[in-house]
Each structure stands twice: as C-alpha cells, then as structure tokens.
Amino acid sequence: MAPISYNGSTYLPVRAISKALGVAIEYDNKTNTIFLGEKGVGVSIADGFDNSFRTKDPELTSYNGKDYKDVFFNNADGNRSSGFILYPKGKYQKLYLQVAAVGKDIEEFFVQDNETDAKLEIDTIDVAEGLKTFEIDISGVETLFIHSELKEGGSIFIPLTTSYYK
Q1: What does the alpha-carbon distance between residue 6 and residue 69 come to, in Å, rounded to a whole number?
Q2: Residue 54: which domain range?
Q3: 115 CB contacts (<8 Å, ≥6 apart)?
Q4: Which tens digits make up the pLDDT trace of 86-99?
Q5: How many structural domains are present in the chain?
Q6: Residues 65, 28: one domain?
Q7: Are residues 71 and 113 in the same domain?
Q8: Alpha helices in the chain (DSSP H)
Q9: What ranges in 25-136 are assigned the alpha helix state H?
Q10: Alpha carbon distance 15, 35 (integer Å)
Q11: What is the pLDDT of residues 59-75, one digit of tens each?
C-alpha cells in the first residue's frame, strides 16, 4: 500500500509499516491510539494459559524460597517431552520467559514459532543456573510452542506470573 496525502498531511498504512519494521501493533479502542513496538508494561503469560501442569498448589509453586503462586511445573515420572502453547496473537514484541531445571539438567529446550516452525530460542538449562530468563523476539508471532526434553528425575519450573509479554 502507498501513503496518501490529505489536507496537507501524509498518512502511512500502519499495518504495512509494522510488518516492514518487524514490530508488533495494537489498537486501543478506548483511546483511539495505535501502539507500535514493545509495550511499556509487561503482560503476564498466565492470562489465558491452559495446561494440565499448571498449578497454584503452594507446595509446588515455590522455587529457591520464593512462592511464585502460579506456575507451569512438569514433575511427571520418566523420560518425557514437556511443552505448551502460548498465543501472543502478534500483539507483542518480546517474550520474557523464566525457566528452571529441577533435579536434572534440561538438555533440550526451545521456543518455536508454531506457524513457521522457526526456532526462536534453543538452549540448555542447567540446575545450577537457577531461574534463567530468556528474552525472545516474537514480533508478529501468532502462536508459540515451548518445548523441553526431560530426563527421569528432572522437572521444568516456569513461573507464569513473572514470565510476560512486552
């Protein structure tokens, strides 16, 4: 789309600018304001999160003496894959995801754009690292797949209240 001129002002197609710059876009109906790029305030991934390993059980939500109140905690038995889907819907620029390995190191961890299968982050998580924070560029991404491979005796701990979109 091309810019248009009207009454001495030039107008640009905001969605095209957003795509060209690789930044998120959002419209606030209440204030009639368009936002481009990273938001000033983070939005918890807990909003709309649905998974059978989500827990608010105080016996499972604490890590290193801090109670996170609401977490994804896969502590099932055996060697297994663990994962879940997030739905940023193209509204955010970044994902700040906190992850800890409990009991055994996580040798394979990745965050993937579910539509393109592009891996946005690939790493390992050692128990000794504690709670590790990943800053992941998710501009324009609609759906994310978070995946880890867990060993017998190992668990993954992700606080949902301190992991957020921006």
Answers
A1: 53
A2: 43-165
A3: 141, 142, 143
A4: 999 998 999 999 99
A5: 2
A6: no
A7: yes
A8: 14-21
A9: none
A10: 11
A11: 999 999 999 999 999 99
